[in-house]
Amino acid sequence: MKKVEINKFGLGSVFKVMLYLLIIPIILCFIIGMVMLLAGIATKAYEFVGIGILVAIGYPVFFILVYGMFGTLMALLYNWLAGKFGGLELTIREMDENVNTSVNSGDGQ
How far is CA 12 from CA 7, 21, 24, 35, 86, in A? Predict the structure, then answer.
């Protein structure tokens, strides 16, 4: 077992992870917004057209900006505090790369 300490997160990688976590909510908002938009056009209820555009485009942009900004801000705060007080400690178990399995054991079966 090996112990490592995380002292710094890359701000770009934290933002990228936040985007990965937002993929499903963004897709759902886009689909719901498009359904509302098309329903509003079909029924001539133009209130739904405006709300559909907001849900399909506005919410995803809002999610990306707010969650990305707060995730990056939290990583920046972590980097600063980890430099002063120490970071997270992880215990890592190293796996042997030469583990014998039925595929690579060489017994021909």
Answer: 16, 14, 20, 34, 21
Name the amino acid, one letter, at 50.
G
Query: pLDDT tens, 42-88?
Result: 999 889 899 999 999 999 999 999 998 999 999 999 999 998 888 88
Token duo for residue 26: 């963004």
**Which residues, 6+ apart, have CB-to-CB distance to 92 below 8 Å?**
1, 2, 3, 4
pTM for the complete prediction?
0.67
Q: How many other C-beta atoms can be found within 10 angstroms of the C-beta atom of residue 90?
A: 10
Q: What is the DSSP letter of 54?
A: I
Which residue type occupies 49?
V
Domain ranges of the chain: 2-92
